[in-house]
Amino acid sequence: MNTTLDIVTSKGLTYEQKVVALAHAAEDSLEILNIPEKTRHYMDIGAICDLSEGHAPYRPRYIMPDYEKAIREGCEFLRLDPPKDLDELLSFLMIFYRHVPSITTYPVFLGNIDKMIEPFLDGISDEEAAKKIKLFLIYLDRTITDGFCHANLGPEETRAGRIILQLEKELQNAVPNLTLKYDPDVTPDSYAELALYTSLFCANPAICNHKMHKDTYEDYGVSSCYNILPIGGGSYTLTRVVLPKLAEEATDREHFLKELLPDCLKHMGDYMNERIRFLVEESNFFESSFLAREGFIDRKKFLAMYGVVGLAECTNMLMDDKSKTYGHSPEADDLAEEIMSVISDYAGHSDALYSEVFDGHFALHAQVGIDSDHGITSGVRIPVGAEPDSMFDHLRHSARFHKFFPTGCADIFSFDPTGRNNPAAVLDIVKGAFELGDKYISFYASDSDLVRITGYLVKRSDMEHYYKGEAVLQNTVHLGGDNYRNAHLENRKVRAIS
């Protein structure tokens, strides 16, 4: 879909999706960023990818409002007083969410949703609370039609959290994406097991290693797929280095590690800084946004997410012995860690503009992949269909690479439906994984309609409609449907609980 007319006349897009696509087309008609010739070369070969952020950035990619502050104080711009009961709270949030922008035009973060609701449940029965929250959850799924929208639970058990988990199993909603912040010292086993039991019916929630993330920023939230970002801030941009595309340019391993990779990393960093400079200094976003004026976001809490994708394929391409592959060979994994060390060194020592919350440097992110990726595995994951037979070996390998990514790295596991019978065993897997150093994992059952694509959720039934050229409600079905086929996600190894 390359022209405005293609968008306007499409049979496979809803009216709302056409409006969003036309807005992106208008933004992309501008060429205002200073992009050097060498950077454009890396973009042309696909080694630097801006993830379709647009050529004239006019809002941060990910915005993480402090909703709890808004609930306490109200919002002058939206003429909203602090809510006094559950009805007022849910109405407050529904209105507020409508005015939170992001790269998707929809909010990517809905807050610590259980903690926001919990104080308003006093004096209300579970039955009455469930009825009101159910309508609220249906509203979110039907109006925020983008799977990158994310809400958080935990780490403490709450009555609101239990109600939400029970409802999600019933509703089978793709939005919001949910994460349970899990800490074995804080989260009761029974609560964590309910979350995991629920996920094996509706792929929600994913599980975050709270112990590893709680000190990254003063206060963090999980947004989009699994992006760990400071509440009250967010991320200006997420550009990614596509490692296998860069490896195609290398004459040998030494050339890649010593010359090509460092040069590409520098040009990508410079490009990201140019995007940030325009956004902060010229777009007037922070001057015009009520979120900033009223203190729900703070420019000093924004950072730059430096994305990495395709480590597996890059490693395999650079191996002299093609029988030794990423995730299965110590030699290949050592090379992969060497590649990541080069990237980590650049990110940790290079200046990122207006990124005070991350000490003025870039923050690494294991990027999930997009619909146009072919033969490129998300982040630092082992390719689908090539997973180790042993889940322990898989998790141990993941932990080795999760350590590089302060703004998010995750793995996805498909389980045999019989796993629903033993959520305690699934929790044991989570505990073991987090002790190894894994930061974030998610599960779904192999027979579930809802599947986790790379970090977001899509229904198989919706993908079938999309494949027939029919319009579908959720924007992310377009991305998920293509990614599901291109990455052959139906071949994910199905794990059994013994």
Write the topology of this structure.
Elements: H1 4-9, H2 15-28, H3 37-44, E1 48-49, E2 62-63, H4 67-73, H5 86-97, H6 113-117, H7 126-143, E3 150-153, H8 159-171, E4 177-182, H9 189-202, E5 206-209, H10 210-213, E6 220-223, E7 227-230, E8 234-242, H11 243-247, H12 253-281, H13 285-288, H14 290-293, E9 302-309, H15 311-318, H16 330-349, E10 363-366, H17 391-402, E11 411-415, H18 423-436, E12 440-445, E13 450-452, E14 457-459, H19 460-467, H20 476-486, E15 494-495
Parallel strand pairs: 3-4, 4-5, 8-9, 9-10, 11-12, 11-15
Antiparallel strand pairs: 1-8, 2-8, 5-12, 6-7, 13-14
Helix pairs in contact: 5-7, 7-8, 8-9, 9-18, 12-16, 15-16, 17-18, 19-20
Explained architecture:
This protein has helices spanning 4-9, 15-28, 37-44, 67-73, 86-97, 113-117, 126-143, 159-171, 189-202, 210-213, 243-247, 253-281, 285-288, 290-293, 311-318, 330-349, 391-402, 423-436, 460-467, 476-486; strands at 48-49, 62-63, 150-153, 177-182, 206-209, 220-223, 227-230, 234-242, 302-309, 363-366, 411-415, 440-445, 450-452, 457-459, 494-495. The protein has 498 residues and is α/β, with parallel strands linked by helices. It has three domains: 1-30, no CATH class; 34-60 and 234-390, no CATH class; 62-226 and 410-498, no CATH class. The strands form four sheets. Strands 3-4-5-12-11-15 form a six-stranded mixed beta sheet. Strands 1, 2, 8, 9 and 10 form a five-stranded mixed beta sheet that branches. α8 (159-171) runs parallel beside α9.
